[in-house]
Amino acid sequence: MRYASSVRVHLLLFSVAAIATAFAGSATTENATDYGTISSAVAQVMEEGHFSGQRLNTRISRIILANYLHDLDEDHLYFTQQDVDAITKAHADTIAKDALMGRTGAAVEIFDLYKKRVNERMEKIESLLKTKLDFTGANSVEVTREHSAWPADDAEADKLWQNQIAGEMLDEKLNGSTDAEGAQTITGRYKQSQAELLDQPQEAEAMAIFLNALVRTYDPHSEYLRKQDIDDLDSDMSLSMVGIGVVIEGDGRYVRIVSVLPGSPAATDGRLKANDRILAIAKEDGDFVDIAGMSIDHVLSLMRSKQGTHIRLKVTARISNDGADAPEHRDIDLISRNIDLVDDEAKAEIVEHTLPDGKKERLGWITLPSFYGDPDHPQGRSVSRDMRTLVTRLKKENVAGMVIDMRNNPGGELEEAVGVGGLFLGAVPIVQEKDRSGKIYVSKADGPAIYDGPLVVLTDHMTASAAELLGAALQDYGRAVMVGGNFSTFGKGS
User: Fold this and answer.
1) 292 pLDDT higher than 60
2) How far is CA 457 from CA 392, 407, 463, 480, 484, in A?
3) Mind listing the pLDDT tens digit for each residue in 137-159?
4) How many whole angstroms separate alpha carbon 294 and alpha carbon 282?
């Protein structure tokens, strides 16, 4: 799983991350990080730097708390409505001011209650699995509960969990497990999730979740970035990463391999296939860790490694659309290394089609997956340089026109988007940014346009951010025809 952010928000994200990181460095002792200072810094960045100019008032405080509770217990399984009411009464009006003043006590206290509820539920799960479960009733299980109400009290929560565990046990029985084997698997699954939660440094994990809830309150695309998040973003923008080369997504209680990156260890090995499910992960000679129920972030943290690390996966093939797995499991050992993300490079080809009069027409087709670039290394990867090469090559082929395919393009570096625009527009204003004081910043490309022929730009509902900004500029200057079917674009850039 890799990340891409909008251009306009991208700048703010780096501000939040950079300031928080700087404060973390200056506020770190030998044994601890001063999260109070980090909290205050992030809150000040949002109050003073966000375009909305929204103060951290009581209304915002209540939204922050609601976001935090949801992020902790996304499926509304562990907290009860009684818990939520008590937390709301105690902290709803003050938690934003606490963040601004560098007081982390409330966020940590709520996180501590969540851990307590997880531990209490684990005891009940183990007790429930020792009883004989009844599958004869007409009970149902909500697979996704993020929009469901919190259980009113402990009694309602117990009933909800009884159905939840019965549903998981039924899955195990349908996969051929005995009652004892199923109970062991389910117990191990929840114990692993419990251990994962308990293993996290309490204040560090609490504040990472809380600060993300805080910044997301200002707009849906802002995030508080931890170091590993910044590393992922840097990999995206430099088209380079260290790993085994699989793209994953959540698939029920496990994760599914979406694709295997060309030229990666996984591609060279050949045994991992799209739709395989990863069941467990181990590094070097360590024990396998069952990943059932883990978040994508935690699965990725298990897979992150230095170059040359042995990553061992226990996988099974997904054999049907309803999610059923093949009975046999496979153990696959791969060695992580640096991978060039060649699939994310801009590419060009020539396509021919026949005109009504029978003549052949040649068009240049450019696929532009993202606006990658490395501002810290000017001679590193650059989509604007790659696009200049591709457009120059297509011109030499005397194409009758060009198509820029920006479907599924999530955005990227602002400077790169401006540079690509300049290839078709020249040194004209391409992007304007206005800060909260009303000051306007204009971005222009350097140098003249290199192609002035017919141009079509393809977009879809996943075209976002820098891609939207470039498309809008080409459209506003009457330089390109925009083609997007019935879809509007994503809405991160305007």
Assistant:
1) yes
2) 18, 9, 11, 7, 8
3) 788 888 788 899 999 999 999 99
4) 15
With tokens 């062991």, the residue in question is: 184
Residue range 236-285, pLDDT digits in tens: 777 677 889 999 987 767 889 999 988 889 999 999 999 999 999 999 99
Query: How far is 473 from 32, CA to CA, in rounded Å?
Result: 48
Cα angle for residues 464, 470, 476 (degrees, 5° grid): 120
In one-letter notation, the amino acid at residue 324 is A
Please state, in angstroms and rounded to a whole number, the distance separating the CA atoms of residues 280 and 286.
12
Query: Of 222, 278, 208, 271, nearest to 249 (Cα)?
Result: 278
